[in-house]
């Protein structure tokens, strides 16, 4: 009996020791699970915040449109503002758009300065980025009002700087789009484990090339109906040449990047060419657009709404694509890391404020645009054409750079091998 009792006591003591050992571990795992849940909630709030900032940016676009097209209705009430000039002339049309753009730029630049160093979800700056919407809305309203008290000379200077900022925005947008096309091409690259992906990628590339060729044909028929439309013929023909060059280089044995990426890029530059020709003034004889009376029909209104939506989507998609512009892309993502770079996000939106200002005034600081029009004029046409050529140049360089780099490495290795043989 004594031995049995002693063995029972030993077992009881062993069980107590095991339970005492398990207790702290369970408590530790519970703390980790709770922290993981909190990080997940913070991450969801951060991701939802992106769309709220997009809504605020959309509101700023709508305010700029209202000030440009209908600001003269409240001009008698602006006579007491010295910055607005005689009868408030400097607070609507082109100057009004620049003032709203300046206010939007101020708001998002403040957000950039206050969130640019955020890296973890538990930081105070993450709370400021994802919450306090009532306060941020008040800051936005104040930022939009302040420029209407700023002298016109300063606003004119901001307009000159906005041209540069809008150009930088277009460059970043191009890089983001090309990186997305590259990712898409790599995803659909031929793979033995994904035979369906290969066939689907071939089908997709065929569709893009057919759409590009059809687009060029439609542009010839609509925008170059007669031999006197030399400029439009040049634009469309050069776009077709770029399409062929991209296809040939993509299929070259040393490049061998397939047809999908070049097909998508061909459709994109055809779209840019079409958009550029569409931006030509309606008074041109090679433009099929009818002379508008300033009120606009339902197609003009619909196109205007789609254009504003495109501005917001382009700014939003570029802002969340911070990984494309990182020098170190192999960092392991931790649970408490922010899902995207807040500083870069707000910086893109501040540049987007300059961009939508240029679109509303058609890149021209000296003339006022018609009602329900956006990005129309010869300045807009040439900006889009240069944007198209620049996009094609970046894409072609991205295709040829690995080959050029490899050839340089081989040329460097050959003298080294010769010297080793001589030794």
From TrEMBL:
Its main location: membrane. Keywords: Membrane, Transmembrane, Transmembrane helix. GO terms for cellular component: membrane. The chain crosses the membrane at residues 51-71, 96-116, 137-158, 164-188, 200-224, 230-251, 258-277, 297-320, 340-361, 381-400. Belongs to the TDE1 family. It is a multi-pass membrane protein. This is Serine incorporator. InterPro entries: TDE1/TMS. The keyword Coiled coil does not apply. It is found in: Membrane.
């Amino acid at each position: 009996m004594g031995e049995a009792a002693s063995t029972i006591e030993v077992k009881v003591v062993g069980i107590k020791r095991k339970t005492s050992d398990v207790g702290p571990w369970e408590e530790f795992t519970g703390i980790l699970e709770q922290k993981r849940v909190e990080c997940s909630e913070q991450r969801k709030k951060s991701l939802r915040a992106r769309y709220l900032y997009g809504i605020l940016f959309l509101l700023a676009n709508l305010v700029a449109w209202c000030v440009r097209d209908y600001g003269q209705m409240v001009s008698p009430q602006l006579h007491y503002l010295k910055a607005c000039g005689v009868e408030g002339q400097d607070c609507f049309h082109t100057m009004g758009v620049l003032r709203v753009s300046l206010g939007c730029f101020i708001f998002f630049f403040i957000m950039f300065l206050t969130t640019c160093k955020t890296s973890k979800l538990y930081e105070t700056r993450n709370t400021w980025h994802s919450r306090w919407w009532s306060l941020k809305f008040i800051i936005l309203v104040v930022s939009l009002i302040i420029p209407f008290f700023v002298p016109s000379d300063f606003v004119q200077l901001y307009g000159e700087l906005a041209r540069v900022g809008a150009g930088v925005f277009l460059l970043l947008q191009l890089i983001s789009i090309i990186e997305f096309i590259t990712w898409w091409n790599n995803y659909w690259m031929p793979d033995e484990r994904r035979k369906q992906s290969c066939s689907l990628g071939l089908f997709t590339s065929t569709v893009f090339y057919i759409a590009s060729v059809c687009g060029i044909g439609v542009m010839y028929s609509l925008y170059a109906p007669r031999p006197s439309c030399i400029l439009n013929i040049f634009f469309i023909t050069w776009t077709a040449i770029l399409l062929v060059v991209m296809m040939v280089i993509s299929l070259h044995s040393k490049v061998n990047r397939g047809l999908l990426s070049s097909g998508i890029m061909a459709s994109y530059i055809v779209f840019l060419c079409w958009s550029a020709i569409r931006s030509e003034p309606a008074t041109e004889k090679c433009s099929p657009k009818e002379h508008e009376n300033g009120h606009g029909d339902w197609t003009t209104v619909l196109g205007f709404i789609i254009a504003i939506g495109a501005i917001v989507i382009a700014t939003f998609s570029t802002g969340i694509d911070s990984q494309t512009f990182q020098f170190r892309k192999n960092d392991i993502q931790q649970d408490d890391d922010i899902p995207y770079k807040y500083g870069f996000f707000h910086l893109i939106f501040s540049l987007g404020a300059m961009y939508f200002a240029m679109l509303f005034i058609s890149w021209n600081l000296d003339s006022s645009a018609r009602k329900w029009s956006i990005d129309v004029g010869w300045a807009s046409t040439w900006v889009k054409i240069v944007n198209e050529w620049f996009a094609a140049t970046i894409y072609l360089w991205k295709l040829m750079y690995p080959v050029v780099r490899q050839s340089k490495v081989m040329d460097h290795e050959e003298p080294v091998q010769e010297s080793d043989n001589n030794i």
